[in-house]
Amino acid sequence: MSEPRIMWRKAVNAVMLTLTGVAAFGVVCVLFLILGYLIFNGGHSLNLNFFTQLPKPVGETGGGMANAIVGSLKLLLLAALMGLPVGLLAGIYLAEFGGKTFSFIVRYTTDLLNGVPSIVIGIFAYALVVLPVKHFSALAGGVALGIMVIPITVRSTEEFLRGVPNSMREAAMALGASKWKTIVTVVLPAASGGILTGMLLALARVAGETAPLLFTAFGNRYWGQGWGQPIASLPVMIYTYAISPYDDWHRQAWAAGLVLLMLVLLSNLGARFILARSKAV
Amino acid sequence: MDSVSGVPQPALSVKPFRDPVHMEKTTTQPTEQSIRLEIADLNFFYGPKQAVFGLNLKIPTHKVTALIGPSGCGKSTFLRTLNRMNETIRNTRVEGKVLLDGQEIHQMDVVGLRRRVGMVFQRPNPFPKSIYENVAYGLRVNGFKGRLDELVEKSLRRAALWEEVKDVLKRSAFALSGGQQQRLCIARALAVDPEVLLLDEPCSALDPVTTAKIEELMFQLKDSCTMAIVTHNMQQAARASDFTAFMLDGKLIEHSVTSKLFTTPTDPRTEAYITGRFG
Prior knowledge:
The structure holds 2 protein chains of 2 kinds.
Chain A: H1 3-42, H2 48-52, H3 66-97, H4 101-115, H5 118-133, H6 138-162, H7 166-174, H8 179-207, H9 211-214, H10 234-242, H11 247-280
Helix pairs in contact in A: 1-11, 3-6, 3-8, 4-6, 5-6, 6-8, 7-8, 8-11, 10-11
Chain B: H1 20-27, E1 35-46, E2 49-60, E3 64-68, H2 75-81, E4 92-100, E5 103-104, H3 110-116, E6 117-120, H4 131-141, H5 148-158, H6 162-165, H7 178-190, E7 196-200, H8 208-221, E8 226-230, H9 234-240, E9 243-248, E10 251-257, H10 258-263, H11 268-274
Parallel strand pairs in B: 3-8, 3-9, 6-7, 7-8
Antiparallel strand pairs in B: 1-2, 1-4, 4-5, 9-10
Helix pairs in contact in B: 4-5, 4-7, 5-7
């Protein structure tokens, strides 16, 4: 082959290698830039008061977002109670029982549901829960987030169940276990680490959702008055504070963003830890 | 149990690798054979594709029957019809009779059948649980309420594994070696005290030393168990079995006493296979 041809190939190779490397580096940078920016802007507003006090009225500085932090956790609890069991059972159906046509439909629908814009799910929850009782509520927010949790849980559960070798099911059934008993005593325990990870990631994913909460959980500047009343949440608080005209609120919004991101990062780390431990058995 | 004359009678031939103590046991067996499993006109289909054709076979009590034949000849499929494991595969169909102690297995409760007809698979497949829990599993799912510890120990002893694992019963079964795992799987199958043990190429993933251990174990288990083993290893069939059935393309070609089948086969296809001309 001629010299220039080889030179050209080497050049193309070098350029492409650099491009892919730069893109990969950029991905890492984005996260660290966001994290750095949040710490820079919100870090010094982050003190004990932020975690223990209620928001101060306009004009007063200080105060915290204790109600929003607890509210977010309450909403996630509701979402988990509503979304995780449905997601888990449907995932088991797809991996263990499903036939051809119906499974295909379920799988396809699940993917579509996963792609539905969160604000549309918010409207749905609004029509379903808020309109009949004529007021916003934590319950409505939980329903909206719960719906979003379902498709993620279904697919991750199915995937991890499929990862359990068939020989395991055969071994159990050859010992006289029924299909359901096989699933409960052998297949689910074998996949439990992965399934738990998927659930944690699903919750982490919806923890930061704002749009579906705007007209369901609505928001609250005080401690919520129970599940049937509006409730504060971190994402909505960030939204409200960030578009306000007050500098102090801006700083608090940054701090809230930092707390939210930390929450998500920690649950991701937790998920990885669980997965790594379950694989070591 | 009825004695059937249609079964090939074992000839008093000396088999390789048998020590005199064990030899004595084989020779004192009655020549009249009782039959544990009787298979009549068995056809098996994967969808439209037939895998087993009109198979007739009698599996005598407390003996080892080996099934040999080239890959894809249907020997594993056939073995799996004996405890109805094939029913877990979608779109399959079985025709014909399989009698366990004279009872049609397709009319039995499948759970009860699988408790009586245990199975050991090609690759060791312990559960991701402790050694103890693996053996106890079959007892637990069958609702056994008794002294588990005793039965676990007994089963592990029967599988010649007790001495190696008695101090690490709580450890994960995955920590064992491949051969130990396979013996654990045998112990797990033995725990529910099956009358028949089906072995589907149990040594194909194991080294020769471990294989010898499993074969020795099979020999000891003959006192309490009837065994059917699928193997693609003809030496293993010759060493470890009393009777051998040769299958080809889903059909049973020849069935006789192992020593006879390997020395004076009647069918030219059997001879061609055991002399290594194909397969």
